[in-house]
Design goal:
- Pfam families: DUF1499.
- Keywords: Membrane, Transmembrane, Transmembrane helix.
- The structure is a single chain.
- By secondary structure, the protein is of the alpha+beta class.
- It contains 8 helices and 6 strands, in the order ααααβααβαββββα.
- Strands 1, 2, 3, 4, 5 and 6 form a 6-stranded antiparallel beta sheet that branches.
- Helix 3 packs antiparallel against helix 4.
- The termini are far apart.
């Protein structure tokens, strides 16, 4: 038997190679699920729900199981170095995939079942006709309402939330360092209206520049009404979230800026809209200092 054959360990080497191939295939599976959705080959429910969460999780467990078996085989009765390296690499790849999916599931359960946030629910920002038409064109499933409530089908994953106002859940999830010490129970950033001394025209111009720099598609730009509406499209799955910005004059000659961000599909946004609004407000504050 040659040295190369000894290192490959015969059929044990083949099992190790198969485990690595399966783990790599698992990675490509998730990429295909996302890109297929983005390219319109199938709907997001199939790409995310069926391919990623359902079949994808089963594929990960299969890859994990095969890689563990390959690793054990490489170590028993005259261990083989090359088989061990291949099987360990397979275990590492499938383990990272599992960790990613587990983190996704944990975050989805920990965060509230909302996809619509804004800085002022007492005077909600409502979409223009142009934005409503854009949402309808893409088959948006989530309506934009003045006082949205959590739907009944959220009961299974988020008991006790159906029928509650989204504004209440947002407030409960916001972290206020003045009264809270731990973000575990309040994972959202604090969202409030931003008041600036800059006049509305100046604020509008600066905010529009920020929106364009972020690569968002501008849907409505009305400086006279103090309205900017834009859509951000995610790279994976091609999800579209709409951002509505309202700029109102203050009595002192400055501006009051409010932002609303809402997803077109899906019950939970995994905190994406809240983060988007907070990041935008931070950029606005920096630009208008």
């Amino acid at each position: 038997m040659t040295s190369e054959q000894t290192q490959d360990a015969g059929w044990r080497g083949l099992v190790a190679k198969a485990s690595l191939a399966l783990s790599i295939f698992t990675v490509f599976w998730f990429v295909a699920a996302a890109l297929g959705t983005k390219l319109g080959l199938w709907g997001w429910q199939f790409g995310l729900g069926t391919m990623t969460i359902n079949w994808g999780l089963k594929l990960i467990f299969l890859a994990l199981g095969v890689s563990v078996i390959a690793l054990v085989l490489s170590l028993i009765k005259a261990p083989r170095k090359r088989a061990f390296i291949l099987s360990f690499a397979a275990l590492l790849i499938s383990g990272l995939c599992f960790g990613r999916v587990a983190a996704f599931g944990g975050q989805a359960t920990r965060l509230p079942p909302i996809h619509d946030v804004q800085t002022d629910w007492t005077n909600p920002i409502m979409p223009s006709e142009a934005l409503l038409a854009a949402r309808e064109k893409t088959g948006a499933m989530n309506p934009v309402m003045e006082a949205p409530v959590v739907p009944e089908y959220a009961e299974e994953r988020w008991p006790g939330t159906p029928g509650r106002l989204v504004s209440e859940l947002q407030e409960e999830a916001e972290f206020d360092p003045a009264v809270q010490e731990d973000r575990v129970d309040a994972p959202y950033p604090k969202l409030d209206s931003y008041i600036t001394n800059a006049p509305p025209a100046t604020a509008h111009e600066a905010i529009l520049d920020i929106v364009k720099e972020r690569g968002w598609a501008v849907v409505e730009d009305d400086a006279a009404q103090g309205v900017i509406e834009a859509t951000e499209t995610s790279f994976w799955f091609d999800f579209k979230d709409d951002v509505m910005i309202r700029i109102l004059p203050t009595e002192e000659g400055g501006s009051r800026i409010d932002v609303r961000s809402t997803s077109r599909v899906g019950l939970s946004d995994l905190g994406a809209n809240a983060k988007r609004v907070r990041d935008l407000l931070d950029d606005i504050e920096t630009a208008l200092r």
